[in-house]
Amino acid sequence: SQDSSSPDASDFIKNATFARTQSAAPAPENVTASDLLLGAYDPAKLHPLAGLGDTLDYLLLDDDKTSDLPGSGTAIPSRGWSDDLCYGTGTMYLSGLALGGAWGFREGARRPLAVSNSRLRINSVLNAITRRGTFLGNSAGVLALAYNGINSTIDAVRGKHDTLGSMSAGALTGALYKSTAGVRPALAAATLVSGCAGVWSYVKRRV
Q: Domain for residue 194, yes or no?
């Protein structure tokens, strides 16, 4: 038989006491995005070893250094060949897309259709816009890319930037662009692009 002096399990549980122990480190405070944006969060808490404190600064970019090449001071400031290459190519590409889109819209709107239907007219306009817009945009972008690359090379070799160098770069660009079409188309393109480059260089200096 079971010993009557042994403690009963139910009595032991009833008489037992439990105590909650405090953790050594408090739970970290939950940080929300609004706390970071409103400045309520300490930057030093980003990492305990960073030691940033209140000295968190923004990255400063020096954009005031323009090209010191003689003759490069025009109405459009530039920091060098990279600016001319990127901005010139992007501007010409977007301009070509816009002009080609307008050309395609006019062509698609005036194209005669076998059946007068609004859906067919919209389809005709969209097809013309995508065809003419991409053609002019890509052509203008390639011309600008080649022109700025050749022009920057000529300026670096000659040590100055002037209208003569721009016209020479335009002539080489036009001849290269139409070199596969024959001698006469290449000469015509060289003359046209050289004239446009000369006018552009003159306008930049006089504005």
A: no
**Could you tell me the sign of the dihedral formed by the alpha carbons of 12, 13, 19, 20, in that order?**
positive
For residue 140, how many other CB atoms are within 10 A of its CB?
20
Q: How many folded domains does the chain comprise?
A: 1
Output the CA torsion 101→103→108→111 (10° steps). Answer: -170
Residue carrying the six token digits 């944006």: 37
pLDDT digits (tens, 9 = 90+) for 5-51: 555 667 766 776 666 655 555 555 666 666 656 655 555 555 555 55
Q: Give the separation between CA 141 and CA 134, rounded to whole angstroms.
A: 10
Cβ atoms 68, 56 nearer than 8 A: no
Whole-model pTM: value is 0.58
